[in-house]
Specification:
The chain has about 160 residues and is mainly alpha-helical. The protein has one domain. The protein is about 85% helix and about 0% strand. Helix 1 runs antiparallel to helix 4, helix 2 runs antiparallel to helix 3 and helix 3 packs antiparallel against helix 4.
């Protein structure tokens, strides 16, 4: 019985759980400080992004833990998709959009968060690929043994 979960992915998720509240506090504090100088549409965008990232990150980390530790493909696939689609582009938007008047501390925490997300996308992809291939092989072997039992014996 081979273990399919990924230790590097789990370590990354573990540190991400502790880093996210730090990232959130820094981002909210800097947003509070620069809020008066932002244009109205950037104010709306940033508040929406903070709500979206906060909710998505909680769900994403839960799915990552369950999918990796319990070797559940649907949960790990959900984690991978939530990392790849909403989270990574949003963090890259926060990191590279100069209209947001990015503070140096804010840039630093966004770089660390983007590094976590990038690593997790790659690690989850390979873990997911290994899990799917192994589970498909187990399914085929189970079906083969079931058919062998149903086949009538010689003579």
């Amino acid at each position: 019985c081979e273990i399919l979960s990924s230790l590097p992915l789990q370590i990354s998720l573990y540190f991400n759980v502790y880093f996210f509240p730090f990232w959130w506090l820094i981002t909210v504090a800097i947003l509070y400080l620069k809020y008066p100088v932002l244009s109205d549409y950037y104010k709306f965008i940033l508040v929406t992004i903070m709500i979206l990232v906060s909710l998505t990150e909680l769900i994403r980390l839960y799915l990552g833990y369950v999918g990796n530790l319990l070797e559940k493909v649907p949960e790990l696939a959900g984690f991978w998709l939530l990392t790849l689609l909403p989270q990574l582009p949003v963090i890259l938007f926060l990191l590279f959009n100069e209209g947001l008047k990015i503070h140096s501390l804010e840039r630093a925490v966004h770089i660390v968060f983007a590094a976590f997300l990038s690593f997790q996308v790659i690690a989850a992809f390979f873990t997911l690929k290994r899990m799917v291939n192994t589970l498909a092989t187990r399914f085929r072997l189970t079906e083969f043994h079931r058919l062998e039992e149903q086949r009538p014996g010689p003579g």
